[in-house]
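Researcher: Next entry: Acyl-CoA dehydrogenase (Streptomyces lydicus).
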Amino acid sequence: MRFQLTEEQRALRDGTRKLLDGRFGRDRLRAAVDEPALDRALWRELGAAGFFALRLPEEAGGVGLGLPEAVLVFEEAGRALLPGPLVACELLAGVVDGVAAGERTAGLCEGSAEEVLWEHPADCDELILVEGGGRDARDAPGRAEGVYRSAPDRVAWTPFASVDPLTPLARVTDFPRGAPLGGPDPSRLRREAALLTAAQQVGSAVRTVEAAVGHARERTQFGVPIGSFQAVKHLCAQMLVRAEMARSAVYAAAVTEGALDVTGAKLLADEAAVRNARDCLQVHGGMGFTWEAEVHLHLKRAWLRAARWGVAAEAEEALAADLID
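Model: Predicted structure:
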């Protein structure tokens, strides 16, 4: 079995990177921090480019691609630190009207989470709640399982402090459930949400490797680049290894779509994104804490994603249980 990207997949990845470089570059990223509201014009541009309709059939107006291609696109989104309910809109395109074209946005919440958190509450036109379909004990038999929708103005919520300035959060305190939303399967939604989140983590991990290596080449101490010092070389090499291991796991999980494969991929991707951002910050020294370096934004986003759609403790329990079985 070969996992080399095809020419079409490379073109998709390169085209996505070019699109995001042009529409959401460094200056736009900094402006978004000061004004974190969703950029509707950018959202519609992404929709027009097929960003959210990647996996919809062509006869339904989509691009007709698969999960591996969606993973490549989301890796680039993670690399650019693109904000917004990206995972929710990708998964709900074709389910919620207007989402595929970028004309409307939808949020996605885990109903069984200890804190039911809602990303970008002020910018969502629909909110979808996923209950059941997970491996957690709280999803045990007897608990309702399904996918429910609600208009945002019917949902009771309170503000929730977010570590990431580009991802506003709310804690849902009451979600009036109507009839289950037909179509999406809770298990599949959870699995794909975890995988696309992992893909974003991989993109962030790769970007921080590039940032650390770039800084280590330019920054000098004692008359030489700091990258010439053994300790910095080893730090950067470990970052690269983490990023590549996570990328391989995520690509493989996109092909197999196995629940445990996705669980392992998310675990590796979370670790790569968080630890790489920390190491990148160390390479940057004190500069890493300032607004001149974007590494602190990668670290904050990596922390937030690591707490979404499967945390490390749950993943480790699931993988250990599978080994024992």
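Model: Note for the record: The two ends are 27 Å apart (CA to CA).
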